Amino acid sequence: MANIIQPLQHFTKFESLNLGNELIEKALLYKSNPALDKAKGAGKRIGCIFLNPSLRTRISTQLAAMNLGMEPIVLNMDKEGWALEMQDGAVMNRGTVEHIKDAAAVLGSYFDILAIRAFPSLTNKEEDTSDFVFSQFVKYSGVPVVSLESATRHPLQSLADQITIRENWSGKKKPKVVLTWGPHIKSIPHAVANSFAEWTIGMDHELTITHPAGYELDEQFTNGATIEYNQSKALEDADFVYVKNWSSFNDYGKIICTDASWMLTDKHLQHAENAKVMHCLPVRRNLELSDEILDGKRSLVQMQAKNRIFAAQAVISHLLEQL
Ligand SMILES: NCCC[C@H](NC(=O)CCC(=O)O)C(=O)O
Ligand SMILES: NC(=O)OP(=O)(O)O
């Protein structure tokens, strides 16, 4: 394949329009021929470390690595690893068994690339917004690190989402993309919403974000988007509607609205006839998003999930070129 345009040390966030386009094109090439670079990662290993549950990210990242001839090894660190100590200088005379600086350095010595999932606590805003846990792995492992969803971002999901938008848009104008908050019963992280906004704006689409008052996201991710508190107004003439719950960012981690009328149904899209609907999954059916939408023609959710393989393959391939 062609030489890389923009080098990348770690894959943790949106970097540039150029790199975004390069990764989307690479992913689409892999989608049409998954075995295109099947010898590229021969003799190399990727460690996929999960501190939280996962279906798509866990499997798609392994498939992506295998398509490149790499060997993936998964560690469910939350269940199978030792309890990790994160604080520098801690006297470890309580529950934690192993310091992150020791564990991350060991993992770095075992693998050529590390991939880490580390969700936020949703109770400690400062630690979460600085991506403290994820950053410790980056700091101490000494190898390229891929985010499998950190406290603040989910870039492999966002890349798969942008690939899906690219495949489903042939209009001449910029597509109108709407990110709409949907109800949920639990406190949910901001990472998917932050990252989707960051990538959608970065890829130069028109983004409108709609949510109840009090659900404003961290502005560093939404600068450049239109914020519209009236959901029906926001949805008018939408080309893509991304549904996602997140907890309050200002009143950190709190649920401040449970209004069921925010759940997206076909009726909400009466002024957006051609709108396609997206969700990262897992989705709480008939709470966040109705069955009629998820099982209907508008839904892109299965395509998004499939594209996770090729998003990961493009990213791992890019990193392999720099090893
Ligand atoms: N990785 C994709 C989404 C992960 C997470 N969802 C969740 O925690 C759902 C949990 C539940 O529905 O009980 C989120 O939205 O950030
Ligand atoms: N969309 C997504 O990241 O799914 P998992 O949490 O199942 O990996």
From TrEMBL:
> Taking every annotated instance into account, which residue ranges of this chain make up the domain Aspartate/ornithine carbamoyltransferase Asp/Orn-binding?
192-318
In which residues is N(2)-succinyl-L-ornithine bound? Answer: 149, 184, 244, 284
Q: Which residues form the Aspartate/ornithine carbamoyltransferase carbamoyl-P binding domain?
A: 21-167
Q: Which InterPro entries match?
A: ArgF'-like, Asp/Orn_carbamoyltranf_P-bd, Asp/Orn_carbamoylTrfase, Asp/Orn_carbamoylTrfase_sf, Asp_carbamoyltransf_Asp/Orn-bd
Listed pathway(s): Amino-acid biosynthesis; L-arginine biosynthesis
Question: Which superkingdom, per the lineage?
Answer: Bacteria
Q: How does it assemble?
A: Homotrimer.
User: What family, per the record?
Assistant: Belongs to the aspartate/ornithine carbamoyltransferase superfamily. SOTCase family.
The molecule here is called: N-succinylornithine carbamoyltransferase
